[in-house]
Amino acid sequence: xxxxxxxxxxxxxxxxxxxxxxxxxxxxxxxxxxxxxxxxxxxxxxxxxxxxxxxxxxxxxxxxxxxxxxxxxxxxxxxxxxxxxxxxxxxxxxxxxxxxxxxxxxxxxxxxxxxxxxxxxxxxxxxxxxxxxxxxxxxxxxxxxxxxxxxxxxxxxxxxxxxxxxxxxxxxxxxxxxxxxxxxxxxxxxxxxxx
Length: 195
Prior knowledge:
Layout: H1 7-37, H2 43-64, H3 69-93, E1 97-104, H4 109-117, E2 123-128, E3 133-142, H5 146-156, E4 161-167, H6 180-194
Antiparallel strand pairs: 1-3, 1-4, 2-3
């Protein structure tokens, strides 16, 4: 397909292919580490297989062209770009669950009502702040719903202090998904009509 002895291949096409291979394997590696940290153990081995396979192909070409400095630059550049691309992909996938910890000095019941109405479970407890008594509202949500929860917090209790953290596992309960109940009801309604 390519003339491997030509200068165009050696200093152009080959480094570009090495660059692409490194972007792919480092992106997969970044996602693999994120999946492991979030307890998605079934995806990690599959991703690890492809990560190493691509890496071996890239290193093999580097070793066959040790006198080609452009390949070294392409290898390092692909590594750097792969980290960036992996994080962008992870951000778009929004994999996993997060916990919101919302500290409210005002009435916390309106916030809980709004979050519950939107399909998010909540738990509240009394706490002692540095200046006054407060309520801490907890909610575990899917990462792709984080923006919706933040908007509800800002709209309902703009003075609230909140943090969010990734969680590895949630047990003995279920994380509601907004709109899931409606779609289930619609499905059963259609089934009954067709009967």
